[in-house]
Give the backbone structure.
Amino acid sequence: MNEPWYKISDTSNLHTPALLFYPHRIRLNLEKMVEMVGDSNRLRPHIKTHKCPEIVRKHFQFGIYKFKCSTIAECEMLASLNVPDVLLAYQPAGPNLDRLGALMNKFPETIFSCLCDDPEIADGLNHLGERLGKDIPLYVDLDVGMHRTGVEPGDEALALCQKIASSDHLQLKGLHAYDGHIRDARLKDRIIRCDAAFQKVTEFQALLKEHDISDLTIIAGGSPSFPIHARREGVEVSPGTITLWDKGYDNLLEGLDFLFGAVLATRIISKPSTNRICLDIGHKAISAEHQQPPLIMGLDDFKLVGHSEEHMVLEVSSNQEFKVGQILYAVPHHICPTVALHDTAQVVRDHTIVDEWHIIGRKRKISV
C-alpha cells in the first residue's frame, strides 16, 4: 500500500518540530493559479506566506516576475533574486523611508514601488526621490471596507492622487484595493461582496478621469478574492496563501481547491493519560490562531485542550494507540505566521528529505 503523500520514510534523524515543504505540490498550486488567472502578467503574488527564495524562483518558471511583499527584508530578498518589479504593500514610515532608499541604491535594476495613504508620507517619499535623483512609483492604498489601512475612495483620495501626480519626484503608478475582510464561505456570497467593494474603485476611477488622471494600474484582492478580480479587465491580482495553502482557507472557502504544500512534523513528547497526548508544536512552532487546532493528518477524533509556548495538548480517543516519540503531521490553521516562526524548511520529495530551504524573508533585517 502506498504511503500517504506527506509521510517521510525515515524520521530517525528528523529534528522536530520541523517545517516541511513539498515542491511538487507547490508547483501544482502555482500552475493552477496561473490557469485560473489566464495571464501570468496579471499576477503579482504576495510572498508573505513563504518568504523563501526557492519558491520565488518557482514563480519564474511560470513567467511571473512581479511580486508584492510586506517588509523591507522581503523587498531585499526579492531584489537579491533579480526580481525586476517589487511592490512594498506597506506604507513606509520612520526609518523605513531611508531603508527603502538604501534598497533603491543597492539594487538599481529593480523597480521598487510602495503604498501610500497619507500626504505627509507622500512628502517624505518625494524628498527621498529628490535625494536619490529618481521618481518613486506609488500606489494609493484605497480602503474598500477592511478599515485596516488606506484612504476611502472620494475627495480625500482624489486630493492625495493629485498631490502625488504633481510632485516632482513621485509617479502615481496605480491604485491598491485589498479586500481581506471578504472571506465568505460560499463563492456566490463572496462574489457579491467583492463586486460591491470593487464598485468603489470603479467609481473612483471615473472621478479621477474627470480630473485628467487615468491609465493607472489596479491591484486588487488576496487569495479569497483573486479569481473574482481575475475576471476584471486590466486588474492585477495578488494571491499569497495559495502557494502553500492551509487548513483555515481549505475549510472555509468554497471554490478554491488548492493543495497543502507545507506541513509540520511533530513528535509526541508525552502521554499523560490514555486519552491525552502532548506534541512539541507550541506557539513558537505553529501559529496560535484563536485556539484553532491544526489538521492532524490521519487523526480525526481529537480535541485541542492546551496550547502554550512549547506544547500542544490533545485529547484523543482511548481506542487509538499512541507512543511517546511517534511522529504526527500537522497542517496549520494559518500557514503565513507559522512559516515566519522557522529559519528553514525541510524539502520532501518521494517521502525523503532531499534539501533544506532557508526562510530568508522572515528576518526583520537582511543588510539594509
